Amino acid sequence: MVRRSRKTELSALDRLEAVIVGSLGDDKADNVVTLDLAGKASFCDRMVIATGLADRQITAMAEHLSEKLHKAGLKRVQVEGAGGADWVLIDAGDIVVHLFKPEARAMYALEKMWGAELDEVG
């Protein structure tokens, strides 16, 4: 019986995160933040949040990221809100990516909702 170690799982997650952060960097995303949600949320282990200045930039970031995730071997990548929205969500399985215009990012404040303050509650 072969058992997968936690270290192997983390390295796969780290590789996925590197693809995401690299793609966003290539597309000049602003203020890219990664939050570790392991044990805090049931829908993902990490969340990546980034800002784009215009609809076209956010749409391009989502398209490029989706392509790079497919090339990295991810079979199912779901994109919600592409094509002119203030907020695009990319579900990459263990990592969820949020692309915002600056005003929407400030309004939804996901870093505050899921950040360090979450550890202090409860």
Account of the 3D structure:
This protein has a 5-stranded mixed beta sheet. It has a single domain, classed as Beta Polymerase, domain 2 (2-Layer Sandwich), CATH 3.30.460.10. The chain contains 5 helices and 5 strands. Strand 3 and strand 4 form a beta hairpin. The relative contact order is 0.18.
Please tag this protein with its features.
disordered N terminus, Beta Polymerase, domain 2, 122 residues, 5 strands, disordered C terminus, alpha+beta
Counted by DSSP, the helix tally is: 5
What is the second-level CATH architecture?
2-Layer Sandwich
Query: What's the average pLDDT?
Result: 86
Shape: globular
Q: Determine the N-to-C terminus distance.
A: 39 Å
Number of domains: 1
Uncertain regions spanning at least 5 consecutive residues:
1-5, 118-122
CATH class: Alpha Beta
CATH level 4 superfamily? Beta Polymerase, domain 2
The count of DSSP E runs of length 2 or more, i.e. the number of strands, is 5
* Gyration radius, in Å: 15 Å
Strand content: 15-25%
CATH topology call: Beta Polymerase, domain 2
Percent of residues in helical segments?
A: 40-55%
Order of helices and strands: HEEHEEEHHH
Strand order of the largest sheet: 1-2-5-4-3
Going by helix content, strand content and strand pairing, the class is: alpha+beta
**What's the story with the biggest beta sheet?**
5 strands, mixed
Brief rundown of the structure:
The chain has five helices and five strands; from the N terminus they run αββαβββααα.
